[in-house]
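Please annotate this fold before class:
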Amino acid sequence: MELIFPARCCFCRISLIHRGEVVCPECLALIHYLHSPLCSCCGRELPDSSGGDHLCGSCLRKPPVYAWARAVVSYASPVSHLLHRLKYASDTRALPALVQVIAPFSEVLRQEFQGESDRIVPVPLFSTRLKKRGLNQSLLLAKIFFPQAGDTLLADVLIRTRNTPPQTTLDGVARRKNLRAAFAVSNPSAIRGRRIFLVDDVLTTGTTVTECARALLAAGAREIWVVTVARVADSRE
């Protein structure tokens, strides 16, 4: 089959040489992976390349409700194209490429995740939007980030209580008003006292993960760690 239909890069369509690749080395080189120095809380890249991780000015002035946030890459092509295909076209053919993109970050999560005391929670969709799309991209990404999650992945514990307009159509202030009290926890005992790894696709202003974190903390979670594939440049709540 590979002789007749050789594997091709999902972006530039060039033939791939190595088995298991989905993205060619040239396209991977276009992806900007986030690296230290980072804000030790919100995970934004810091301009001083000579220092280590430390708190950024925004987190010093107004600490987020979550304890830690990390994204793998900057939100730009070709990763933005992959996430858009998955999220809005329900195109699961984007998943193997996202697995390859996320792979360098896997060791970070392996070192941080403690299966007995931690739980993984994807950002939920409202029921009607989930039916329309046919998938929750955050749940699929959580399975990529934590392939051995098992029972620690709680797909239904965090719910969206109302059908809010898409955040992409709103500015920062409107985003916060749009999602205020839009999330609830269906089973507080499942997360009480636990550290929660909250998974989403993109960190833009931080509004969505902030409102999710508030709901989880109010239900008894110990602290919230946010994991996303991508981060919009200089994004911060």
Remarks:
- The first strand starts at residue 68 and ends at 74.
- The chain has a mean pLDDT of 88.
- The domain at 31-231 is CATH 3.40.50 (Rossmann fold).
